[in-house]
Amino acid sequence: MPTSAHALGDVTASDSTLRRFLHGLPGVDAVGLEARAASLGTRSIKTTAKAYAIDLAISMVDLTTLEGADTPGKVRALGAKAVLPDPTDRTTPTTAAVCVYPDMVAVAKEAVAGSGVKVASVATAFPAGRAALAVKLADVRDAVAAGADEIDMVIDRGAFLAGDYMKVYDEIVAVKEASGAARLKVIFETGELSTYDNIRRASWLGMLAGADFIKTSTGKVAVNATPANTLLMLEAVRDFRAQTGVQVGVKPAGGIRTTKDAVKFLVLVNETAGEDWLDNHWFRFGASSLLNDLLMQRQKLATGRYSGPDYVTVD
Amino acid sequence: MSAAEKSEQQRLSVFKTYKLYVGGKFPRSESGRVYEVSDSKGKWLANAPQSSRKDARDAVVAARKAFGGWSGATAYNRGQVLYRVAEMLEGRKEQFVREVADAEGLSKAKAAAVVDAAIDRWVWYAGWTDKIAQVVGGGNPVAGPYFNLSSPEPTGVVTVLAPQESSFLGLVSVIAPVIATGNTVIVIASEKSPLPALSLGEVLATSDVPGGVVNILSGRTAEIAAPLAAHQDVNAIDLAGADEVLAKELEIAAADNLKRVVRPQAVDYARTPGTERLTAFLETKTVWHPTGSLGAGGSSY
Amino acid sequence: MASAFEYAPAPESRSVVDIAPSYGLFIDGEFTEAAEGKVFKTVSPSTEEVLSEIAQAGEADVDRAVKAARKAFVKWSALPGSERAKYLFRIARIIQERSRELAVLETLDNGKPIKETRDADLPLVAAHFFYYAGWADKLDHAGFGANPRPLGVAGQVIPWNFPLLMLAWKIAPALATGNTVVLKPAETTPLTALFFADICRQAGLPKGVVNILPGYGDAGAALVAHPDVDKVAFTGSTAVGKEIARTVAGSHKKVTLELGGKGANIVFDDAPIDQAVEGIVNGIFFNQGQVCCAGSRLLVQESIHDELLDSLKRRLSTLRLGDPLDKNTDIGAINSEEQLSRITSLVDQGEAEGAERWSPACELPSAGYWFAPTLFTNVTQAHTVARDEIFGPVLSVLTFRTPDEAVAKANNSAYGLSAGVWSEKGSRILAVANKLRAGVVWSNTFNKFDPTSPFGGYKESGFGREGGRHGLEAYLAPSSPEGER
Hints:
Largest interface: B-C, 42 and 47 residues
CATH architecture of the largest domain in chain C: 3-Layer(aba) Sandwich
CATH topology of the largest domain in chain C: Aldehyde Dehydrogenase, Chain A, domain 1
Largest sheet of chain C: 7 strands, mixed
Helix content of chain C: 25-40%
Strand order of the largest sheet of chain A: 7-6-5-4-3-2-1-8
Number of strands of chain C: 20
Oligomer: heterotrimer
Shape of chain C: globular
């Protein structure tokens, strides 16, 4: 969405207004932020609340494969898993989406056809983003043309760290335009931004530029989604909506592997952004192995027995 | 007898009117009262001001007013000022030797030793001003991502009942540690021997000690001490010069605003003091601040 | 707040703790009845259930306990420090082993959330014993002269807000320095102290070194006044602290007092706002605000008042009040009916004086003693709620325009225990921290405690420090050139 529509007015009018705005955002105290995230992590989610959380989490998974070795067969299997996560229990919700490289979008689209599961595609020279804008935009257009419902772009971290916020902004705006009707997730690669202040600035920058989702990371660097950086981004979407009326989604990606982790993230959502975000239209998990753990926990709740890896599918 | 001494004897000497030292000025007691001060053999020496409750109150106002500047001065600066007191005393040694000899019935030689010790005591405390914080403060290794530092700060306005017997060395030994750390003080001089204390005021006034940092009252110890012990704007009281009965009474009064109290104790003022009188009028402030978790979570600054 | 994501009850199991129907006084290593045969009941403030019946100490019991402590002092103080250290290490370890049991017990008897007893109280209790254990054989190096001596028998009176933690703060340094102890826990929270007596037994601590006397204020007064007590340590109200200071006047008793507070939490316009909101909440709602160092006065820069208040109110709406044993409970019960009525009357007075009262929608349980988290806005320094310690979950919000004004308002109190400063500007934090007349200043954080960190107040918040090297001083007679103390 063009910035002029926002209550924030013309903070993006020039490089200097944008810089002043971003640098004027409240600072983040790292210890306090992490302490809050850790404290919410001690919530004890049991029985009915756990059942609700597991189904919600499954429905929020962007089931992901982003490997050089991806093949049509691998992507088809992923699609089948997204549509029917647990063949032994058809009450299990589908995942939100499958997430693949642009060249696999068509295969994925076919695999999930008619299920309601979306196809998301990473684009813009994922994961490094080190390519000319024209290349990135072509990447996006390819994915959209192949039927992608959602585009997961990476920002230019180099430009961001060099202080060239306007370049990052313009690029997001351009990608948003190239995405057309597809929803745009903007990946910051928080591990490379390194400071919480930068993550807050990137969040606002992304939202100002029209992101539909802000996303932590590619899953390809050492530090990906953490409770603390996700909490910080949830605060950002909460505050952005309060100021502009525009709701933006959040997607932590990478490193979330267990049900326990996922439930902690849902507690963060519940107690920070609030229940309006407890929906896969507004919150996603970028994950692959998480799904099977959610399914095993779901089986445990249903049967009272602990499940095992042989009772969930490996796709 | 030399000719010079003879002529001095014949000359009618100029008496000194002893005055209080309050807020850097030398007022008489607002009550207009004085009392006779005699030497150890009962010979009249001078009339000293007999301070009233109102003098005590004025002294508290002066001490409070001076507290911000004095406690806010650098420790280095306070050290320089205390050293300056020693320098000034050195130059007026003879006067103090005479006053101490009279007051305490000491020989000239013994009185001189006492005055020397008192001067050296100022030097000792001058050196403490910028060291005590390092001795009693420091970083605390808390089990978490926090910088945590304890530092001593002056308690505030302190009332000191100066020792009754040791009219000068004892006096200096109870004033210097209090102001070295940035407190301001109201001293009640030895009741029987107030003259060295009142003369000290004159030295302090010319030693770069800001007005109000030290305020010296003479008179009936019990009369002056009672309102000061109860005064809500006094933070601490040193009962060195109180007898057992008075000390208890004052300690009870001091409880009304929880003054820090140093009880009377047997002290050999000739010995090098420890740090007890320095630390008795210090508060410990501990400040915490997050350090950041330095890499534990990747994005952790 | 109703949400699609309702947390199901997650109660901690009560079965880890076995509370006997009655307990005696712990004197000279034995549980014994009170001389006058009196007993009192201790109840769970969240349900009003009677937990146990406790022997109530009187003057004769105090005398008996002091005699036992005096007798034990001879051998205990003569033990090599390294041996005393090992007793304290044993105690620390046993506390760790039994920490879940003690956490549940504390929550039952005090009413505070299990989340706090489990994650704050008990870890700090064990850490405190560990810390002082290590000092016991290093006292020569603590800066109090060579060969500092213990004082003798310490009479210690502790409050109900952190029953076991306050016990640790008192007993650990006293034993490390070679003193023996008679401790009176508060009448509403005697149980963890009595369980601690059992821990002393398990640790093999010699008889009479620790004596526990549950009872009321009269027992505390008798202990403080007992002529054979050498050291008085008290944590509690300023009024009682003053009474103690009068009682010991003219005696040889060394005294330390940890009293009330009205902590200012100062939020500048450049603060890390989200963390400041957490710090404000933690500052006043931790332990239902029944904390002497609570940040009960919020001083917010006028330019961000509305924004901050919106955030704060939104955050308060997520606080979960209820069963203290539920692991998701943020706000537990008020400790006693008496305390609840004190809070209620001060809050009523705040309203009557024109301050604006606000609480989030919050259902209070029908049994037990409860008070909803409460904010007062439009408060000035003249309001009672800005001056008196409420000791409850009640925050008074005041504004300031400049740093000088913030400091002036923060210091405008008879108390001087704690303060908070929130700003991203280092020089401002240091300058303000420097000017605050408070014993603990938390900058960009609040309510943090550590055994190595000295804690205690300026002005009418008391004197002496607990914790750290400083905490040893209260229990030692320095071998000083200035002679006997």
